[in-house]
Amino acid sequence: MTDSSPDYRDAGLEFPAGFLFGSATASYQIEGAVTEDGRGPSIWDTFSHTPGRVLHGHTGDVADDHYHRLDDDLDLMQRMGLEAYRFSIAWPRIQAEGSGRANEKGLAFYGRLVDGLLARGITPIATMYHWDLPQALEDEGGWTNRDTAYRFADYAHHLGDALGDRIHTWTTLNEPWCSAYLGYGSGVHAPGIANGAAALTAVHHLNLAHGLGLQALRSTVTRPETQYSATLNLHMIRGDERAEQASQEEAVRRIDALANRAFTGPMLRGAYPTDLLEDTASVTDWSFVRDGDLEQIHQPIDVLGVNYYSTVTVRMWDGHSPRSNADGHGQSEGSAWPGSLDVEFVQQPGPYTDMGWNIAPDGLEQLLMDLHEQFPELPLMITENGAAFPGDEVVDGRVDDPLRIDYLRRHFTAAHRAMQRGVDLRGYQVWSLMDNFEWAYGYTKRFGIVHVDYESLERTVKQSGHWYSELIRTRRIPE
Questions:
Q1: Is 175 a catalytic residue?
Q2: Which one of the listed residues 31, 175, 344, 438 is annotated catalytic?
Q3: Does the active-site annotation cover 479?
Q4: pTM metric for this prediction
Q5: pLDDT tens digits, residue range 19-37?
């Protein structure tokens, strides 16, 4: 093993047996086939077909056509040596209207996916909700409607009955922060609503869905070793050192409450933070939280999924200079930070990925350490980490992407260092297996370790994918 480098460019670090190396995707981003075999419309179908919502008018109608190329994609995963695959299930493929009987053709597709993974020795990690809410439920209020949480529990029953005993880890929600604050607060994600009170209502109903969904799964799944989780994009928040200490601390506290503790509080501690309720009192009275809700939400989990891409730097706004909002999600008509519009997100030093996000592997190490200190008995798994960079092109049958290799090397080093410091980290799912539909950015941002030609849909493993295969094979960060 080499000496630790200050820039996290270590090589030769070894990961233990049992550490799950894999990759991750999401249903709407890769599947296509949006009107086939009984699938109903989702909020992302509606959003992407609304002019001006997604760059260049791109949609997920075809995406990577994974629905029709399932076996080939499974073979590709096997050739790459993946030990795990984190995928999401499209709720409208199971229940076109978000309620009622399960669609057998939809269940059959995911049954083939799971069986295909198991036959190839790949561990299935299933996410029940990665943002593609059935449009019929949104028509009734979506995540601002309490009933959606109960519909989610019914959906979980169907999944548990059909697939429960073949899934290694069930994840209820992926990044509920995005679903609530970007979907209902800033409006840059589906359903495109810009209303602070709606965003906070959605926060609670997503939390409630998590708890009800876990209970529904546990009531149907009989496999005793099955694990249960949620995946959060917990923010690594830093104070702007150019600001006064009090300004830094207040800004960090406020954003930590909205971004992190709004979810870890009820899920892992059984209560919303008092300061969150106070900070947002001018936005909502939180009357949507009913007696018994917190007990429903506070269900035991076996592992916490952690998605990490970058850090944010904050300070309190002085109220008169131009307000910076470099929170990584672009300009919008609303705010992803209800009750904290006096917090300023300042531009961070580079280098940056193609998303404009700063590259900070030290932030991943610190985030893992912070979580370990807050919840020392809770195992963690990195369920997303990766980067988009420009210039991914196939030349003579190969895709050279040295920036992505460097990014992954540095972040795997950060994860390893956290483990050496005592963090119980169970695995690492690289985002993403394939280039795909990147939400409001359409097909303009490529995160994949596999290149997809969006005309021919041909797959080409990038050099980063080959690098990752070598890491998995040897369990050592390559030289």
A1: yes
A2: 175
A3: no
A4: 0.98
A5: 999 999 999 999 999 999 9
